Amino acid sequence: MASEPNTQSRVMFQAADKTEEPAHRKLGKLTVKYNRKDLQRRLDIEEWIDGQLHLLFDCEEEEIPELEIDIDELLELTDEGQRTRLQELLQECGKPKEDFINGLLYRIKGLRKMSGPLKK
């Protein structure tokens, strides 16, 4: 009688269904695509951007103008395009912004887009 529940559990929970295999493979791709090191590097860059914006605008977070620096968008552009886009975004800033732009462009070198293959 003890063997009957085990047999039923196997049949119910360990079915050899072909549809489960691709889902398992997709999980493997996601793990490789979004590895912890890349995510941590991106988070560090975003925190650096936040701190630098506080210095550039010399104000509290609530007072910083509506500004979104999209790292993935920058990665789609050429080097000169990245520089131009950042200058456009920071045009309201009265302080010199070249150090910030150079620092950000240096930090995003080698980053991969997070949503690149999904946009196709």
TrEMBL record:
<feature type="region of interest" description="Disordered">
    <location>
        <begin position="1"/>
        <end position="20"/>
    </location>
</feature>
<keyword id="KW-0007">Acetylation</keyword>
<keyword id="KW-0597">Phosphoprotein</keyword>
<comment type="similarity">
    <text>Belongs to the PP1 inhibitor family.</text>
</comment>
<keyword id="KW-0650">Protein phosphatase inhibitor</keyword>
<feature type="compositionally biased region" description="Polar residues">
    <location>
        <begin position="1"/>
        <end position="11"/>
    </location>
</feature>
<dbReference type="Pfam" id="PF05361">
    <property type="entry name" value="PP1_inhibitor"/>
</dbReference>
<dbReference type="GO" id="GO:0045087">
    <property type="term" value="P:innate immune response"/>
</dbReference>
<dbReference type="InterPro" id="IPR008025">
    <property type="entry name" value="CPI-17"/>
</dbReference>
<protein>
    <recommendedName>
        <fullName>Protein phosphatase 1 regulatory subunit 14B</fullName>
    </recommendedName>
</protein>
<dbReference type="GO" id="GO:0004865">
    <property type="term" value="F:protein serine/threonine phosphatase inhibitor activity"/>
</dbReference>
<dbReference type="InterPro" id="IPR036658">
    <property type="entry name" value="CPI-17_sf"/>
</dbReference>
<dbReference type="GO" id="GO:0005737">
    <property type="term" value="C:cytoplasm"/>
</dbReference>
